[in-house]
């Protein structure tokens, strides 16, 4: 689901998260492993106000593993605890409570030194729409309970979801807006399906995706669509469009007269890319 974010929504979303920060020990910041910076809220450091944070690169099953490793290092170098995850299959979820304990070790040691009981760690998941917040919540809860709407401004009674005995999650995740200031960010989000391409022009989105794949993963594109030659000049739009047309011809996206229907071809390219038919692809490198 796509939200149109306006300044009022952003302020409200921010206030909602700030109110929840008082209830929790730590934040789980969910990013898309394929585009960790583009899927990151631009004001996240300010909003989270030094709350201990575990960064999770989700959808790692769709991302290029070599690039994901580089991103893990990137965030570690910035002093963050970071984990990769495939929330859809559950791969990696079990590590979350363990990492949470590492993150909060100092606080927990202090409580122990004072002879206080350890209570469950309380956490809030935050992230932009579609990054996998509900999927992760359901995974951690072990059952399907978090059918949340992506509606800024909608509040429900707060409930805690138990994750084993050592962790509790606020049932409604914090929904954040992505970066908008850079056009490339919008295209990267649209290529991966994080925002609907209808907001942008589908052919433009597919063009952006095709150009990127030609530059970084040509062999996979060539194999999948039986293409011979990469675009002669990547910066010449006609050369990239020729590749899109060749793909369209392979997939039978033709109009009367035999010309390629570029809109249909664009939809095919995006569908196959998002479904992982071109293999694991990252749209952004550190
Ligand atoms: P949100 O709450 O942050 O808005 O995101 P949500 O959990 O609804 O997830 C958005 C989409 O991303 C869902 O797909 C979900 O299945 C998928 N997803 C979440 N985590 C992962 C992951 O780690 N790997 C992969 N491959 N997909 C993930 P959908 O198309 O909206 O629904 P459906 O395909 O589950 O029916």
From TrEMBL:
<keyword id="KW-0342">GTP-binding</keyword>
<comment type="function">
    <text>Required for a late step of 50S ribosomal subunit assembly. Has GTPase activity.</text>
</comment>
<feature type="domain" description="CP-type G">
    <location>
        <begin position="13"/>
        <end position="178"/>
    </location>
</feature>
<dbReference type="InterPro" id="IPR016478">
    <property type="entry name" value="GTPase_MTG1"/>
</dbReference>
<keyword id="KW-0547">Nucleotide-binding</keyword>
<dbReference type="InterPro" id="IPR030378">
    <property type="entry name" value="G_CP_dom"/>
</dbReference>
<protein>
    <recommendedName>
        <fullName>Ribosome biogenesis GTPase A</fullName>
    </recommendedName>
</protein>
<dbReference type="InterPro" id="IPR006073">
    <property type="entry name" value="GTP-bd"/>
</dbReference>
<keyword id="KW-0963">Cytoplasm</keyword>
<dbReference type="InterPro" id="IPR027417">
    <property type="entry name" value="P-loop_NTPase"/>
</dbReference>
<dbReference type="InterPro" id="IPR019991">
    <property type="entry name" value="GTP-bd_ribosome_bgen"/>
</dbReference>
<dbReference type="InterPro" id="IPR023179">
    <property type="entry name" value="GTP-bd_ortho_bundle_sf"/>
</dbReference>
<comment type="similarity">
    <text>Belongs to the TRAFAC class YlqF/YawG GTPase family. MTG1 subfamily.</text>
</comment>
<dbReference type="Pfam" id="PF01926">
    <property type="entry name" value="MMR_HSR1"/>
</dbReference>
């Amino acid at each position: 689901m796509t939200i149109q974010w306006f300044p009022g929504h952003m302020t409200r979303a921010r206030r909602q998260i700030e109110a929840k920060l008082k209830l929790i020990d730590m934040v789980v910041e969910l990013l898309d492993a394929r585009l960790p910076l583009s899927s990151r809220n631009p004001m996240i450091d300010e909003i989270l106000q030094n709350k201990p944070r575990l960064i999770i690169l989700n959808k790692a099953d769709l991302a290029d593993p070599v690039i994901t490793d580089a991103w893990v290092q990137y965030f570690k170098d910035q002093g963050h605890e970071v984990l990769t995850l495939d929330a859809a299959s559950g791969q990696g979820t079990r590590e979350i409570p363990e990492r949470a304990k590492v993150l909060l070790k100092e606080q927990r040691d202090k409580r122990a030194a004072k002879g206080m009981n350890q209570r469950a760690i309380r956490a809030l998941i935050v992230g932009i729409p579609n990054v996998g917040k509900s999927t992760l919540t359901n995974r951690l809860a072990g059952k399907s309970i978090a059918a949340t709407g992506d509606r800024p401004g909608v509040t429900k009674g707060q409930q805690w979801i138990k994750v084993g005995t050592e962790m509790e999650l606020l049932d409604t995740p914090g929904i954040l807006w992505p970066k908008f200031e850079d056009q490339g960010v919008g295209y990267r989000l649209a290529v991966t399906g994080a925002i609907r391409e209808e907001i942008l022009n589908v052919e433009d989105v597919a063009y952006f995706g095709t150009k990127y794949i030609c530059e970084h993963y040509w062999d996979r594109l060539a194999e999948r669509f039986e293409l011979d030659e990469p675009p002669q000049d990547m910066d010449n739009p006609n050369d990239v469009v020729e590749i899109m047309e060749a793909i369209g011809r392979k997939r039978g996206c033709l109009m009367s007269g035999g010309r390629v229907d570029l809109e249909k071809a664009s939809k095919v390219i995006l569908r196959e890319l998002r479904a992982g038919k071109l293999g694991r692809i990252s749209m952004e490198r550190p």
